[in-house]
Amino acid sequence: MADFTIDRATTALLIADFYAEAMGSLPHAVERGVVSRTVGLQSVAREAGLMVCYCATVFRPGYPEISQRNKTFSARKASGQPAVFDPVSIIHPDVRPRDDEVVVGKHRVNALFGTGLDVALTANNIDTIILLGYATSGVVLSTTRFASDRDYRLYIVEDCCADSEPDVHNFLIDRILSRQADIVSADEAIAAIRAS
C-alpha cells in the first residue's frame, strides 16, 4: 500500500484474541503462517518501542458477565464448560505478553468495549492501532468498527489474521474492513515500523 507511515510514539500493536488453540490448529492460520508472521511483527514492534497490547475473551466462574439475551456468548454459559479468567493463559505461547505490556480480558467481542484498553491507549497518546488476530469476523471486525468511531487510525495486518471461514475473511478484508482501515501485510507493517 502507498504511504504507510507511522509515528512510533503514537502507535500501538494490538494482538487480539490470538488464542493458542485456534492459531495453532486452524487451517486458515496454519497454512498461511500466521503465528510466525505475528512473532516477527511483535519482535520488530518491541524493538521499536511501540506499545504492544493484547486481549482475550475471559469470564469469571459462573459467567456473570453473560446475559441470556447475548446470542454470541449465552451458548458458552449454557455449555457447562469451565470459565477461563486469565487472558494470558489462552494466548498463543509464541506471542505471550511481557510483564510490562498491556493485557486486557474482555467479556464481549470488541477489544475496546468494557475493557481498560481504550483508557490505556488514550493515556499514552495512542492514535494509531496496528490490529491483527482471530477471528477476522469477530474481534477484528468489531474492534475496527468501534475504533474507527473513536477516530483511531487503523491498519489491519491481513496475513496475521485468520478466520474459521476463509471466504468470510476475504470478503471482510476486501469489501468491509477496507472502508474503515488500511489493509497491510506483515512485511509492510514491519517496513513501516522500521522506517519510523
Automatic annotation (TrEMBL):
What InterPro entries does its record include? Isochorismatase-like_dom, Isochorismatase-like_hydrls, Isochorismatase-like_sf
Molecular function as annotated in GO: hydrolase activity
Q: Does the keyword Hydrolase apply?
A: yes
The protein's UniProt keywords, in alphabetical order, are: Hydrolase
List, for all copies, the residue spans of the domain called Isochorismatase-like.
Answer: 11-187
Q: Which Gene3D superfamilies match?
A: Isochorismatase-like
Keyword Protein biosynthesis on this protein?
A: no
Superkingdom, natural source = Eukaryota
Q: Which family does it belong to?
A: Belongs to the isochorismatase family.
Tell me which PANTHER family the record gives.
Answer: ISOCHORISMATASE HYDROLASE, PEROXYUREIDOACRYLATE/UREIDOACRYLATE AMIDOHYDROLASE-RELATED
Protein's name in the database: Maleamate amidohydrolase
